[in-house]
Amino acid sequence: MIKKVFKRPAMDLTFWSDVRTALRSDQRKLVSHLEQVRDRAQIGKDISALRVLDVAAWLHGKDGE
Q: Is the pLDDT reported for residue 65 higher than 80?
């Protein structure tokens, strides 16, 4: 579902590499934003930024079904 939300082909072999690059780029601003979202949701710091991205994408995709 996450590839569909980001409009990537199902057989996209570079998707997770591109996600990793995005998380590391621009002084990790995306990670910081996802951590802020996690904090606002009042969930534990044991939940990774990647998991926050995954859940947000799933929720977005679920709404579009």
A: no
Distances (CA, A) of 60 to 5, 24, 27, 45: 7, 23, 26, 22
- Predicted model pTM: 0.81
44 phi-psi bin (left φ>0, alpha ψ -120 to 50, beta other): beta
> What residue numbers bound the domain in which 47 lies?
1-8+28-65
Nearest to 54 by CA among 11, 23, 14: 23
24 pLDDT above the threshold of 70: yes
- State the CB neighbour count (10 A cutoff) for residue 15: 15
The two structure tokens encoding residue 6: 């980001």
Domain count, the chain: 1
